[in-house]
Specification:
Layout (H helix, E strand, L loop, with lengths): L3 E4 L7 H14 L5 E4 L11 H17 L7 E3 L4 H12 L4 H5 L2 H7 L7 H16 L4 E3 L2 H21 L7 E3 L34 H9 L17 H14 L3 H5 L5 H28 L1 H30 L19
Parallel strand pairs: 1-2, 2-3, 4-5
Helix pairs in contact: 2-11, 3-6, 3-12, 6-7, 8-11, 9-11
């Protein structure tokens, strides 16, 4: 049983990414699970190429620094040739109507004058990510479940039409992680792409930056700390961050403090200590260019080897030329993955 999870370099990795997903990947990931930096996914809308490249390297370093086995991590664009070929195969399997009714395409294209074609075909690339690696499960939120369902449809259609090549994956909701809110606006999630970073704690922030952002966090009316998400979302967010870093329940932790300032100091201390080893290891990797390149190359080679037989089988069965050196001439029949 294998899982596949990705993170898009739309911005710097933040505390919510770490507590909600990355930390869990490092602790719970199985030997066959794969994690990738989805930089190709970051090209469906206007972007800065050099910034995207830099963020992809940073995210790779963060994933490894968090404790994920380097052999199970890769950067998506390092498999661009393989993914490009398989995406075309899947686009030739997908109907226009299936792609056009994806909710994310409708939402992101609404009111836009120049929508990139890649925004429409993005689900085929996501399907290629999943099917190339033969993933059994894809942990996703509700916003991506529809894309995994389309992946299942395309895999079944291809297998039924040309021969069994692809594992049929299923979407799974990941275990509930910490839902970290923006410190400046606790009504919204902490986001990599937030226009104003004053309420976002990034995992590579220096300790003084972290402390400053947390001290400026929006709190609510009242003077005694209580965990009341509906009426005091700012204080509830701080207590939930503290619980995620230190353990315990937010409600019980609230009883330990007599003032909002004391809560903020405790949260700052806990976050700084939670992120310290990750920041130090990631910074060391980013400073050692040759080592990060070596790790990146090894991860890409493993991911490429894992998926190459599926790609070759899919190309052969759909009617594309066999790879050079393959003169078997087998164009029919069924093949298991």
């Amino acid at each position: 049983m294998s899982k596949l999870s990705g993170i898009t370099p739309s911005g710097h990795v933040h505390l919510g990414n770490h507590l909600g997903a990355v930390r869990r990947w490092a602790i719970e990931g199985g030997a066959e699970d794969l994690y990738f930096v989805a930089d190709l996914h970051g090209m469906t809308t206007p972007h800065n190429p050099s910034k995207l490249r830099s963020l992809a390297r940073e995210q790779l370093a963060v994933l490894i620094a968090a404790g994920i086995d380097p052999e199970r991590v890769f950067v998506q664009s390092d498999l661009a040739r393989e993914l490009g070929a398989l995406t075309w195969v899947l686009e030739c399997t997908c109907n226009y109507g299936e792609a056009a009714r994806m909710i994310q395409f409708k939402e992101k294209s609404k009111g836009q004058a120049g929508v990139r074609l890649s925004l429409l075909t993005y689900p085929a690339l996501m399907a290629a990510d999943i099917l190339l690696q033969g993933a059994d499960e894809v942990p996703v939120g509700e916003d991506q479940r529809q894309h995994v369902e389309l992946t299942r449809t395309l895999a079944k259609r291809f297998n039924g039409t040309y021969g069994d090549v692809f594992t049929i994956p299923r979407a799974v909701l990941p275990p509930a992680g910490a839902r970290v809110k923006d410190l400046a606006d606790p009504t919204r999630k902490m986001s990599k792409s937030a226009r104003d970073a004053v309420g976002v704690v990034f995992v590579l922030d220096e300790p003084d930056q972290i402390r400053r952002k947390i001290r400026r966090a929006v709190t609510d009316g009242g003077s005694v700390p209580v965990h009341a998400p509906e009426t005091r979302p700012g204080m509830a967010n701080l207590l939930e961050i503290l619980a995620a870093c230190r353990g315990g329940s937010p409600a019980e932790l609230a009883d330990e403090f007599s003032s909002y300032g004391a809560v903020k100091d405790a949260v700052a201390d806990a976050v700084i200590e939670e992120l310290r080893p990750l920041r130090e290891r990631a910074s060391s990797l980013l400073d050692d260019v040759s080592e990060l390149d070596r790790v990146r190359k090894a991860g890409a080679e493993r991911a490429r080897e894992r998926g190459s037989h599926r790609l070759e089988a899919a190309l052969r069965m759909i009617g594309a030329a066999a790879p050079i050196g393959d003169h078997s001439g087998h164009s029919h029949g069924r093949m298991t993955s």
